[in-house]
Amino acid sequence: MMKINSSINIALLNALIITLVSGTTFLIIGIINNTFELIPILVFITIVFVSSYAFINFSLNRFFNEKIKIIYKTIGRLRPDNKDSSQNNRKSDVLEIVNQVVMRWSEEKKKEIDELKEMAAYRREFLGNISHELKTPIFNIQGYVHTLLEGGMNDETINEKFLKKSVKSIDRMIALVEDLEEIGKLESSDLQLNMENFNLLELTKDVVDFMEDKASKNNTTISISTTPSKSIWVKADKKRIHQVLINLIDNAIKYGNLENGTIRVSFYNFHDNYLVEVQDNGIGIPEENIKRVFERFYRTEQSRSRDKGGTGLGLAIVKHIIEAHRQTISVRSNIGEGTTFSFTLKMA
């Protein structure tokens, strides 16, 4: 800015000198001839404007040339030994820079378009899954109710049975709505964690006791690989971690070994965290599907998806809860050998 002001001042000073010299000359001529003609005055004005424009234009060009050199040096396009390069080389560099900027912009826009397409496909899949999950219990309830209204209420062999099935379908719908609401809270960052210090081992024992009846019905045993007297103190939201353990163990029961299923919960020291693993000996997950197991409603075996129960949102909820704690969760699996879910929690 100081350079341009200096250049403009010099140009104006030169223009002023030309004006004074030219004006003085025309005044002397007028006095000698005792006349002031219009043409000399017009010539005088033209000279002043042309001179001023020429000097100012020269100063501005010099200023912007200096700025261009600074820009070249900043972006690394010119080296100190290239100060005297030709104008054609500078133009070539500028075109190269512009081309790179345009290509980068094009790549960014293409990436945005691809992401939008992926989100649109995911949205369609999500809406289709919700529709299917709700349609199944609704149609079941509709069939049971119509059967009862058409005379089934008077048949003691089916009336209570169909009412219980209707209640089961209603409970499934309620669970789905509650899980959807839970996912909404987790994704909108409205979840308020109640952080506290607690013994994770004791919490795990409570969860195992709670899931033991369901596990036994599926020929599955649950064990904890640690000494009974050991304490594992963590700092987390106890209620949410209870939910995580319930969902992981429930998932292991549903997709475990149908003849002799085993589930093992293990704990390891991992820097300033504890690493928790829930391992089963079930059917396993194909490698191409592992990256999608935490997606909402995603199931690796569609043919066996809904006879296992659940809403298809359990693992998605688990992932959101762990990430809300600023921790990580992962999965590894081998077909026919089983699956292991691992997550970390901060030590108290």
Explain what the structure shows.
The chain is an alpha+beta fold and about 350 residues long. Helix content is about 60%, strand content about 15%. The protein contains 7 helices and 7 strands; from the N terminus they run ααααβαββαββαββ. The chain has helices at about 1-35, 40-75, 85-150, 160-185, 200-215, 240-255, 315-325; strands at about 195-200, 220-225, 235, 260-270, 275-280, 330-335, 340-345. The strands form 2 sheets. It has a 5-stranded mixed β-sheet. Strands 1-3 form a two-stranded antiparallel sheet. The radius of gyration is 40 Å and the shape is extended.
Q: Can you summarize this structure?
A:
By secondary structure, the protein is α+β, with helices and mostly antiparallel strands.
Chain-wise SSE layout:
Elements: H1 2-33, H2 38-75, H3 87-149, H4 159-187, E1 195-199, H5 200-217, E2 220-225, E3 233-237, H6 238-254, E4 261-270, E5 273-280, H7 314-324, E6 329-334, E7 338-346
Parallel strand pairs: 2-4
Antiparallel strand pairs: 1-3, 4-5, 5-7, 6-7
Helix pairs in contact: 1-2, 3-4, 4-7, 5-6, 6-7
